[in-house]
Amino acid sequence: PDPSPKKPGLLGRIFGGDAKEAEPRRVLDDAMLESLEELLISSDMGVDTALRVTANLAEGRMGRKLSVSEIKSLLAAEIARIMEPVAKPLPIYPKKPQVVLVVGVNGSGKTTTIGKLASQFRAAGKQVVIAAGDTFRAAAVEQLQVWGERAGVPVLTAPEGSDPASLAFDAMKKAEEDGADLLMIDTAGRLQNRADLMEELAKIVRVIRKRDDTAPHNTLLVLDATTGQNALQQVDVFRKISDVSGLVMTKLDGTAKGGVLVALADRFGLPIHAIGVGEQIDDLAPFDPEEFAQALVG
Ligand code: GDP
């Protein structure tokens, strides 16, 4: 898969897509900086981060004449610098099973991401078990079963409306008995009643800790890039109700809002483990800061 966000790059929007076409050099002045800031903000980078990026770019360069391609690569370098510390694949623990709790609002791409991850781990020779912990959404359970079939991974389910914690406990047991390397637990994404969801997640954690007091080893928050700045609020909320250890950003294909990743990295510094770049099973890519930055500025 092509891991770069497929959309017009930011600078392409004011300078045109072809750098040659814009060979004349432009003076880096306040007006230029302002239009760069506006562009970054329009990508949902957030005002603070956008201002910092342009300030770094301007440092020692005000009044200089730069070609469009120079501006592009300077901007991309500034963005990549912010992103590099957060680009980390999902850490693998020697623990068996490694327990990955997957959280996020409904529609963010939890189910799809679990399917894609399961497939990648399978391809790497790992044994995986999935628990369909969103027991209140029959559609989510069915969808997860479809993904499990595609990835060749067993999916544990429970009757609709039953206690997700009890399913999680059974899943732990099965994963241990099977000698599975990885257990991924889907969870509900109903933020309407935050206290309920918090209690539900806490109970799942309590119950799996009965079998392994170091679990869960990762709590993955799945975010939808097309929600733009909303993603920041979701991180805030989920960090309050769970122990978020890393992020997966979905739907980076075809969105102009990819700048929100920069804002997230700048504000929270949480690792970005992977990015979703499509609806198919192979459309999950490692996060590559330079590629991302270049695609964003275009
Ligand atoms: P959940 O409710 O959080 O489990 O979300 P789903 O996994 O069911 O995903 C919601 C919708 O987003 C589905 O139509 C998915 O096909 C779609 N989706 C998930 N990830 C991606 C992605 O990376 N790119 C695109 N284009 N669509 C995605």
From TrEMBL:
Top-level taxonomic group: Bacteria
Gene Ontology molecular function: GTP binding; GTPase activity; signal recognition particle binding
Keywords: Cell membrane, Cytoplasm, GTP-binding, Hydrolase, Membrane, Nucleotide-binding, Receptor
Recorded topology in the membrane: Peripheral membrane protein
Assembly: Part of the signal recognition particle protein translocation system, which is composed of SRP and FtsY. SRP is a ribonucleoprotein composed of Ffh and a 4.5S RNA molecule.
GO cellular component: cytoplasm; plasma membrane
Protein name as it appears in the record: Signal recognition particle receptor FtsY
EC number(s) stated in the UniProt entry for this protein: 3.6.5.4
Record domain SRP54-type proteins GTP-binding: where: 97-298
UniProt organism field: Thioclava indica
Localization terms from the record: Cell inner membrane; Cell membrane; Cytoplasm
Domain AAA+ ATPase, residue spans: 96-243
Protein residues bound to GTP: 104-111, 186-190, 250-253
GO process terms (BP): SRP-dependent cotranslational protein targeting to membrane
Main localization category: membrane
EC primary class: hydrolase
Annotated Signal recognition particle SRP54 helical bundle domain residues: 6-83
Biological role: Involved in targeting and insertion of nascent membrane proteins into the cytoplasmic membrane. Acts as a receptor for the complex formed by the signal recognition particle (SRP) and the ribosome-nascent chain (RNC). Interaction with SRP-RNC leads to the transfer of the RNC complex to the Sec translocase for insertion into the membrane, the hydrolysis of GTP by both Ffh and FtsY, and the dissociation of the SRP-FtsY complex into the individual components.
Annotated catalysed reactions: GTP + H2O = GDP + phosphate + H(+)
Family listed: Belongs to the GTP-binding SRP family. FtsY subfamily.
